[in-house]
Write a structure and sequence with these properties.
single chain; alpha/beta; Nucleotidyltransferase, domain 5; 5-stranded mixed sheet; 30% strand
C-alpha cells in the first residue's frame, strides 16, 4: 500500500488530496490569493488528521500548470522540496490534464477541451481524447481570436474559466460547458496510474509548465 500526497494550486482553488493506503481524502476550497499562506498548514493538518507524518509519504504529485504564476510556482516548490528532502518519488501532471481527467472519469467524456484564461488576451488550450484511457492530447497557449470551433462538436466537453471568453463561438455548436477548477483528487488518480507504471521523475524536473511567456501569467 502507498501513501501519496497531491497538490494542485494552479487556480483560485487550493486543492490537496491524500491517498493513505487504500483511502483517499480531499481538501478543496476556493481561496484567491491565499495559497502561499494556507497551503503548508493545510497539508500539515491533513497529514495529522490521518495519523501520518511527512516521513510516511511514498510519493508526491503536483499540478504543474499552466495557470496562476504564484500558485503553480508554490506547488512546484513545495513538491520539489518534499521530494528532495524525503527522497520520495515525484509525479508531475499538467493542470489541464487534471481538469480533463475529472470529466472523463465522471461522465466518460471521450473528448475534453480545457480553456483557461491566461490574461493579456490569451488562452491556455488543452485538447484531450480518451479511449479506455488518455489516447492523445495537445496543449498550447493561443490568442483568444485564434480559437477555432470548427474541429469540435456538441459531444465535446468544454471546461474552464476561459469558456466565457469564447462563448459566442461555443454557442454555435451548443456543447457541454463547465466552469471548473482543477481538483487534487483527479491529480491523485492520475498519479496512482503513473506510479504503477513507474512513470516518475527526479525532483529537479518539477518545474512549472509555460505555454506562453512568463509575462502573460496571472499574478496572484
Amino acid at each position: 500500500m502507498t501513501n501519496i500526497l497531491a497538490i494542485e494550486t494552479s487556480s483560485d482553488a487550493c486543492s490537496i488530496a491524500l491517498c493513505k493506503r487504500d483511502e483517499d481524502f480531499l481538501f478543496h476550497d476556493v481561496m484567491p490569493q491565499q495559497h502561499t499562506k494556507k497551503l503548508l498548514p493545510l497539508v500539515d493538518e491533513m497529514l495529522v488528521n490521518r495519523d501520518l507524518s511527512y516521513q510516511d509519504l511514498d510519493a508526491i504529485a503536483v499540478g504543474c500548470g499552466p495557470g496562476s504564476f504564484t500558485g503553480v510556482r508554490l506547488a512546484c516548490s513545495v513538491a520539489q522540496g518534499l521530494s528532495y528532502s524525503l527522497g520520495i518519488s515525484a509525479i508531475k501532471v499538467s493542470s489541464l490534464e487534471v481538469m480533463a481527467e475529472h470529466f472523463n472519469k465522471k461522465y466518460q467524456a471521450k473528448k475534453v477541451v480545457t480553456l483557461v484564461n491566461a490574461h493579456m488576451g490569451q488562452l491556455y488550450l488543452g485538447i484531450f481524447e480518451y479511449e479506455h484511457e488518455l489516447s492523445s492530447f495537445s496543449e498550447v497557449g493561443i490568442q483568444i481570436e485564434e480559437f477555432d470551433i470548427s474541429d469540435f462538436g456538441s459531444e465535446t466537453y468544454f471546461v474552464g474559466n476561459g469558456c466565457d471568453l469564447v462563448k459566442k463561438q461555443l454557442n454555435k455548436i451548443k456543447p457541454k460547458i463547465y466552469n471548473h477548477f482543477p481538483q487534487a483528487i483527479d491529480l491523485l488518480n492520475i498519479a496512482k496510474k503513473r506510479l504503477a507504471k513507474g512513470q516518475i521523475i527526479n525532483p529537479e524536473m518539477i518545474v512549472p509548465v509555460y505555454l506562453t511567456g512568463e509575462e502573460h501569467w496571472k499574478k496572484s
